[in-house]
Amino acid sequence: TLTNDDSLSVGRFFKPWAEAVERDSQGTLKIDVRNGYAIASLNNSLDRLNEDVVQVTSVFHGSWPGRFPLSEVAGLPFMTRKAEDAGVALWRLYKTGLLDSELKDFVPFATTTYGFSGLHLVKPPKTLDDLQGLKIVTASKIQSDMLQLLGASPSSATPMDAYTALQHGTYDGILTSWAGVATFHLNEVTKYHVDAALGTTTQMIAMTRKRYNALPAAARKALDDNSGEKWSRVLAGQTVDDAIAIAQKEARSRGATIVELTPRQTALWEDKTKSIVDQWVKSRKDGAVVLAKFRELLAQVEAGK
């Protein structure tokens, strides 16, 4: 059983991927794609995977603080605005072995980010130079720390839990990707959107190594043959990146305003949040090595190499 929560990624990634694996497995695998949260959600997908309730699922690293500390490198603030580039670079980082300490119990098939996170607000702020007084929902500790440095008051919650709180005015906005806005219909309750590469949650499509090792050889080969950069590009580019234009079109149709930080504001925000990256490096064994290698790999991907 394979689970996922977004119809765009189901149609463009999960169903084609499942069909390819089944076709190549010589009859040893049957993959049942389930869309929705009935079996696994952002909050429990890793538990469902480890309990063998599902055998393949999306794991959002930010939903499990401290469990995948090095994989989070692709989601650091102001790293990149393109999920496809970040996803491929993250896959290449995984293949170097630098993530083995936290992924040894899993077999990833594709990697991506959830798309660059921007601010999605109920109404325009007084100024974008300082977010003082704004109550913002965010799903990760890194983003929570960043919001504090920008003057906001963060509250930890997943996008799926934010709709009602935003609707009732409990919070002023949410820090998430456009994919999150679309998936959880947040464009119905947010009207002012600030595009900025404010970091994001990293993601992998994976199964447990124990379950993988128990499969017949033909099944393992089929999974291996349908893993890697090709499928990471599909997952990130055709679902996450493409969701941006779709979600922005929907937001504009509802009368929303979409703005970008000016160069001055970008420099100001980067300067205010620089300590986030510094602290990330200091708090993780091999953090400096992983960050340097990821930046090197990301530059190669962005250059088309």
Task: Describe the protein's topology.
Layout lengths: L1 E3 L2 H18 L8 E3 L9 H6 L5 E5 L22 H14 L3 H4 L2 E8 L3 E5 L13 E4 L2 H9 L3 E4 L2 H9 L5 E5 H6 L8 E4 L6 E7 H5 L3 H9 L3 H25 L3 E4 L2 H20 L4 H16 L3
Parallel strand pairs: 1-2, 1-3, 6-7, 6-8, 9-11
Antiparallel strand pairs: 3-10, 4-10, 5-8, 5-9
Arithmetic mean pLDDT:
91
The 3D shape can be described as globular
The total beta strand count reads 11
Record the strand order, biggest sheet. 7-6-8-5-9-11
Instruction: Give me the Rg, rounded.
Output: 19 Å
Counting DSSP H or I runs of 4 or more residues, the number of helices is: 12
The structure class reads alpha/beta
The portion of residues forming beta strands comes to: 15-25%
What is the CA-CA span between the terminal residues? Answer: 35 Å
Provide the helix percentage: 40-55%
Order of helices and strands: EHEHEHHEEEHEHEHEEHHHEHH
Q: Would you identify the regions where 5 or more consecutive residues have pLDDT less than 50?
A: none
Largest sheet features: 6 strands, mixed
Q: Summary?
A:
By secondary structure, the chain is α/β, with parallel strands linked by helices. Helices cover 46% and strands 17% of the residues. It has helices at residues 7-24, 45-50, 83-96, 100-103, 141-149, 159-167, 178-183, 209-213, 217-225, 229-253, 263-282, 287-302, and strands at 2-4, 33-35, 56-60, 106-113, 117-121, 135-138, 153-156, 173-177, 192-195, 202-208, 257-260.
